[in-house]
């Protein structure tokens, strides 16, 4: 009888401990992110096309050499240490992020705080998908009946702190894996802001992730945004034309065509490197879309298949601002082609490789 009482007491104490520890683990995750202007290079491998291993052909040079060429002034989200102390350098596993902003993470139950500084010459914001926010933290301005029409839009040189919470409805659903992807992007003038480069990934995990809120049940995570950056619609078109050595007539069709940069994470013709993994690893892919009518993309992995919400595939469709999460267990060594399967996009350079060792 006495033994039984102890057992019940122990159980009650343990339940209390579980309850207390789970509320302690509801973390506030703080980020320091700036919008910075950078001289972006879509094809650092120039004059070599990394997909062919040979020099770019005349057709390919339309995008990487003619008119403005491969260097464009753009704005990107970059992560800093606390208080905007120092620019955070990206590690080996983050190289492939390319033009994407830092990965913002949260677990269901967390709060995310983003200190944002706008170092660009245009107003900018951070508008998140998926998470919970009030009007003041939406990062988008429109006729919404709110007295503060700015709603988190930040003037050049300004600073703002966004606070988002992560309720159950921001995390993985019944058919999702342990983490899911959302986008965040600037939404002052959404088309122009995103064409300028202000886009990043937001990853929400369910129960029992790692301390940094990354999923504990995968070995690697990779991010790929498939989109055509339309430099004709960038905030920096005039600035880029002013740096142009040739004619660069904005009304000329050839000029406009040369400014359609078909990339993965803002890199073309195999320049998106760093998708390196080992055979048998649990590899999670977050696929993001952005852009306009031409942005219907069909990412295809050679030499592997993936699971998406329980369905097996090696091609997935992605439309503007959508985000999909897929799992792969690579089982064959090699350098494998990884590209958008839309014909016009293949020709224009929306391709890269992943490596299985
Ligand atoms: Cu495509």
Description:
This protein is of the alpha+beta class and 357 residues long. Helices cover 15% and strands 32% of the residues. Mean pLDDT is 93; it is low at 20-24. The protein contains six helices and 20 strands. Strand 16 (306-308) and strand 17 form a beta hairpin. The strands form five sheets. A six-stranded mixed beta sheet has the order 12-11-14-18-16-17. It has a single domain, classed as Cupredoxins -  blue copper proteins (Immunoglobulin-like). Bound molecules: copper (II) ion.
Kindly summarize this structure in a few lines:
By secondary structure, this protein is of the alpha+beta class.
Question: Mind sketching the topology for me?
Answer:
Blueprint: H1 2-24, E1 28-41, E2 48-49, E3 54-55, H2 58-64, E4 71-80, E5 104-107, E6 111-118, E7 127-128, E8 159-165, E9 179-185, H3 190-196, E10 199-205, E11 220-230, H4 237-242, H5 253-258, E12 260-264, E13 276-277, E14 283-289, E15 299-301, E16 306-308, E17 311-313, E18 323-328, E19 334-340, H6 343-347, E20 351-356
Parallel strand pairs: 1-6, 5-10, 11-14, 13-20
Antiparallel strand pairs: 1-4, 2-3, 6-8, 7-9, 9-10, 11-12, 14-18, 15-19, 16-17, 16-18, 19-20
Bound molecules: copper (II) ion (CU).
Copper (II) ion binds next to loops.
User: By helix and strand content, what is the structural category?
Assistant: alpha+beta
**Cofactors and ligands:** copper (II) ion
Classified by CATH, the class is: Mainly Beta
Within the CATH hierarchy, at the fold level, what is the topology? Immunoglobulin-like
Order of helical and strand elements:
HEEEHEEEEEEHEEHHEEEEEEEEHE
* Helix residue percentage: 10-25%
Q: What form results from the Cα inertia axes? A: globular
Tally the helices: 6
Tell how many strands the DSSP assignment holds.
Answer: 20
Give the number of domains: 1
Largest sheet, strands/sense/barrel:
6 strands, mixed
Low-confidence stretches: 20-24
């Amino acid at each position: 009888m006495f033994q039984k009482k102890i057992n019940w007491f122990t159980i009650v104490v343990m339940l209390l401990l579980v309850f207390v520890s789970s509320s302690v683990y509801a973390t506030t995750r703080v980020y320091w992110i700036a919008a910075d202007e950078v001289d972006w290079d879509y094809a650092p491998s120039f004059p070599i096309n990394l997909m062919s291993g040979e020099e770019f052909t005349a057709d390919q040079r339309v995008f990487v050499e003619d008119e403005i060429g491969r260097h464009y002034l753009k704005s990107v989200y970059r992560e800093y240490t606390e208080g905007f102390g120092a620019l955070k350098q990206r590690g080996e596993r983050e190289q492939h992020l390319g033009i994407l902003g830092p990965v913002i993470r949260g677990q269901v139950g967390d709060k995310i705080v983003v200190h944002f500084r706008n170092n660009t010459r245009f107003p900018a914001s951070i508008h998140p998908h998926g998470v919970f926010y009030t009007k003041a933290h939406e990062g988008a301005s429109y006729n919404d009946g709110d007295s503060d029409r700015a709603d988190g839009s930040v003037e050049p040189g300004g600073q703002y702190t966004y606070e988002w919470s992560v309720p159950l409805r921001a995390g993985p659903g019944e058919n999702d894996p342990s983490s899911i992807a959302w986008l965040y992007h600037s939404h002052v003038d959404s088309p122009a802001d995103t064409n300028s480069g202000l886009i990043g990934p937001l990853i929400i995990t369910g129960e029992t992730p790692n301390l940094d809120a990354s999923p504990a049940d995968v070995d690697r995570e990779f991010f790929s945004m498939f989109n055509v950056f339309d430099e004709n619609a960038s905030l920096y078109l005039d600035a880029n034309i002013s740096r142009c050595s040739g004619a660069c007539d904005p009304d000329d069709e050839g000029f406009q065509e040369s400014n359609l940069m078909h990339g993965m994470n803002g890199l073309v013709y195999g320049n998106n490197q760093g998708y390196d993994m080992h055979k048998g690893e649990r590899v999670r892919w977050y696929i993001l879309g952005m852009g306009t009518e031409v942005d219907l993309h069909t990412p295809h992995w050679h030499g592997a298949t993936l699971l998406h919400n329980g369905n097996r595939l090696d091609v997935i469709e992605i439309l503007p601002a959508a985000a999909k999460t897929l799992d792969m267990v690579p089982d064959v060594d090699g350098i494998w082609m990884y590209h958008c399967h839309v014909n016009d996009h293949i020709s224009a350079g929306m391709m890269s490789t992943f490596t299985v060792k």
